[in-house]
Amino acid sequence: MDNKTLGLMGSAPVPKAIIKLAVPTMLGMVAQAIYNLVDVFFIGMTGDPDLVAGVSLAMPLFFLLQGIGSIFAIGSASYISRKLGEKDIPEARRSNAVSFYLTCAVGGAVTVVSLAFKSKLLMVSGASGNTYGPADQYFTIIAAFAIVLIQNVALQGQVRSEGATMRATIGLVIGIAVNIVLAPLFIFTFGWGIAGAAWATVAGAAVGDIYFILYFRSSRSMLTLSPKEMKPNRTMLAEILKIGVPAAISHIVMSASGIINNNYAASYGDHVVAAAGINMRLCGMAFMLVMGLATGFQPFAGYNYGAGNTGRLTQGLKFTLVLATVLACCFTVLFLLFNKEFIQIFINDGPTIEAGRQIMRAFVIGMPVLGIQVTLMITFQALGKSVRAAIVTLGRQCLFFIPLMVCLNAYYGFSGFVLVQPLSDICTTGIAFALAAGMIKGFGKSAEAGGVGR
Is residue 454 part of a domain? Predict the structure, then answer.
């Protein structure tokens, strides 16, 4: 992080600082959303709903890998940003190196476990006789290169932690470009089918990883991946884990929720599994763009919290909440008006399109509140508010999604199935808002007293 970036986060006008930090991250999230859609798009060109369902059945594994990556992308990024705000550069450097090598170790373990229990995981996820084969091909390749995909998530967060949001976006876009170029080549030209989609995904992530590693080895970063800095201490690990683990558990629970969702969807037909998978990626695009805005706010929040500037932090939070809400409402309108057109981009199968439209029309009920939910969740993580962060990150799935899935399907069938996610989002946002109100009030008192409320 250079003096220009320090000045941006510490003294530039708040709207300018937030926008300058957030725009590259939002662009990166758009690219990530495209990345998530590439496999479905090209596989959908085959016109085979079973192949699309096969990709969808591997989604729980993606959530798991993202969750593990988020331990370090979110946990270490929060700690690093706060240490930079406190001007403790050596500790920030050590934290970055520790996170990198721990991620490598965990990624290797995930590969071993995933491949050992592959068949059981796919069956539990809802694979049928028609979809098991495609799902098995895709899952095997993704699991074998878990370390590559986990590092892709973790390294992006570590780059953003020092305010280098544009660098994080560049690395992400490079990887996505590789995936987009290779996917049709592997799937159609080489005739690898669904396995080709998986290989393209892995190749794109690997190229992105190389870019991030080279960035940390350059003079542009004050952080490092040097093995000499691999010096963990109890405080560092506790701070990383208290924020990172709840975020990871949230993704893991999301993985479990994805399995439950696939099983309920499969009870209505394989075309509903395909429709739910397409919808998850399309609505995920809106979620990720809002997430990009909030994630751009993360280093600003952590830095100013570490520096004790709670007045500036509060200004930034309010500004981000307004922007995120406006953005979420724009997507609500788009998906209401053009849901059929969006789904037809990926597959031209009548039953799949109709099921997808019903799911999307229900999902947008909860979309307007996503901006509030995501921004507050990121803020809790950035400030090291582990209990609040855990309640919001886990509440969406544990407190609401799973119980609602069971109850609404039992009483209302498919009509209840499509309402589960929007109702979960509305309830979770209410909890997040209640948790934030007292914290923001405390910031105001702390700013008046000249200190930081921990």
Answer: no
Which helix (H) or strand (E) segment is 269 a member of? none
Q: Please, are residues 131 and 190 in contact by the beta-carbon 8 Å criterion? A: no
- Give the model confidence (pLDDT) of 144-155 as tens digits: 999 999 999 999
The H-or-E segment that residue 381 falls in is: helix 370-382
pTM beyond cutoff 0.85: no
Are 200 and 38 in contact by the 8 Å Cβ rule? The answer is: yes
Residue 5: count of CB within 10 angstroms of its CB = 21
Q: Please indicate, yes or no, if residue 232 is contained in any of the structural domains.
A: yes
Cβ distance 422 to 396 under 8 Å? Answer: no
Domain membership of residue 59 as a residue range: 3-449
Nearest to 243 by CA among 434, 394, 427, 398: 394
User: Measured between alpha carbons, how far is 132 from 112 in angstroms, rounded to an integer?
Assistant: 20
pLDDT digits 0-9 by tens, 77-135: 888 988 888 889 999 999 999 999 999 999 999 999 999 999 888 887 777 778 888 88
- Longest CA–CA separation in the chain, Å: 67
- Non-local (6+) Cβ contacts of 243 within 8 A are 74, 75, 78, 79, 381, 384, 386, 389
Beta strands in 149-254 (DSSP E): none
- The Cα-based distances of 415 to 46, 116, 282, 308, 335 in angstroms read 29, 37, 20, 49, 18
Dihedral sign, CA of 328, 334, 340, 346?
negative
Q: How far apart are alpha carbons 147 and 121 in whole angstroms? A: 19
Round to whole Å and give the CA distance between 250 and 258: 12
CA atoms of 451 and 442, how far apart (whole Å): 11
User: How far apart are the C-alpha atoms of 285 and 321, rounded to whole Å?
Assistant: 19
The answer to whether position 154 is within a domain reads yes
Q: What distance, in Å, lies between the first and last C-alpha atoms of the chain?
A: 25
Helix ranges restricted to H, 185-233: 194-216
Report the percentage of the chain scoring pLDDT > 70.
Answer: 93
Question: What's the domain count of the chain?
Answer: 1
